[in-house]
Amino acid sequence: MSASAAAVETHFSARLNGVSKLFGSFAALRQVTVDLEPGRCYVLIGENGAGKSTLLRILAGLLRPSFGTVRVFENQEPQEARARIGYMSHAPMLYDELTAQENLKYFASLYPGRDCLSPSEALRQVGLDPELTRTFGQYSQGMRQRTSLARVLLAVPELLLLDEPFSNMDVESVSQMVALLAKFRQGNRTIVITTHQREHAAPIADWVLQLKAGRVASFEPGNPTL
Q1: Residue 137: exposed, middle, or buried by beta-carbon count in 10 A (0-12, 13-18, 19+)?
Q2: Is the pTM above the cut of 0.85?
Q3: Number of domains in the chain
Q4: Average of per-residue pLDDT across 2-30
């Protein structure tokens, strides 16, 4: 690779080239090629089974493609750069019997030697009171989603992957979540969101990628207002 080509590589948070993913005889993704730039928010839409979550898990390094290549940051495989990638799954991955502060203290302990946010700071960033004594199991859906986001933000990721972050949230909670993500994007970080509710992500969507049966059906600019 030439020096000029190497310089171009660094302008992308992720590059997928001809990515396909097979589960037995079922093709969850088919020849997906897309570049993701820093400081942009990408919204993945499509019906159930279109391949949105599979694509997100491949970007997170949790799945490997059956065919094609995925590179993140400085031409690394996602598995090599997990410390720089934050993944928020549809399931909360938090403990109902613990408070938000207790949950985040536990997850912070999994990053020894890392320059992470403190649990209190991460909770404040998502608009939650670190001193709240209610357990996670008693939180509203909006609070649960924000706590899940705080868990991901602990490690200050450069690529943030969110699977259905607006699920079962009321309008006010969605607005708060979108405002938080807009602030995160301003740090030249990349956000990828899967959602069935395109209108919720519209205020921050720089690009909208539609998947149909595992293929890219359209890749169009959004109209972000935040």
Answers
A1: exposed
A2: yes
A3: 1
A4: 78
